[in-house]
Fold:
Amino acid sequence: MGVLENSKTYQPRQALVPTPQLYDEIVGAGMEDLAKATIAEMPSLPSGSVILDIGCGTGAGTAAIVDQFRDISGLTIKGVDISEDSVAVYKQKAAENNWPAEAIKEDAHALSMEDSTFSHTIGTGFLFALPNDGTSALKEIYRTLKPGGVAAFNSWAYVPNMKPIQVASNLTRPEGTPFFSGGLEKWEDPGFLQRAIQKGGFSEDRIAMTKRDFTVTTTNMDQYANMLWSFIGGIASAGWLESDEDRWDEAIDIIKRELRKSDECKELEGGRLQLKFVANIAIAIK
Structure:
């Protein structure tokens, strides 16, 4: 998916610029691991499969597909994302890793592809970032999927890093300042993910739900806390506050403290962090 951005112009001097590369560093191998866990629930791919990686971002889903199905003859992947920067990174990775893939800058809500184009679609870390629960994008996915085609989706059932950011926001900002959650809470329910997919056109009896937990290893605590606050702290409706610059270090210390309190966060030898995530996975057949 594309990098979340804040439309407000003010930004604390300490805040890192939110780029696709920063996003990749925050999630570590997490998005690819999420994609791998999702793909593992799919039936085997036949030769000649044509796959849509919707909301492809910098290519985590495609990397996972290629890793598992590189030997499938005639495999073709179309990566679609609305973020020009993400598409540029995807194209670079595709060239460097010899992916059988093409990156396309396009809106998932209005795909240019014809009906029944793809045998498979994967949308990883995707639906919960869209307005209206992704209904219009899901309708486009359904439209462009061949009859009998397979679509794979996921949502977070649990993330260990949102609460520390919320605590930092509550303790360093004026009372009543809105906090960005992205509406993630409702997606924790696997039933919500299933109902969203049904609104896109898929039948309830052709959707299989699974829950998977896995660990993600990322950067060191100081860098991770700075990236989290830089990436998410300013994207609430209020944007960044001028007081955030003065209280930046305090917010970072709170995030680190809250992460260390969590049983789902472990500091490894060498300083890197290991975080536990839980995902809902849905496999839908048209």
Summary: Confidence is low (pLDDT under 50) at residues 1-7. The longest strand covers residues 145-158.
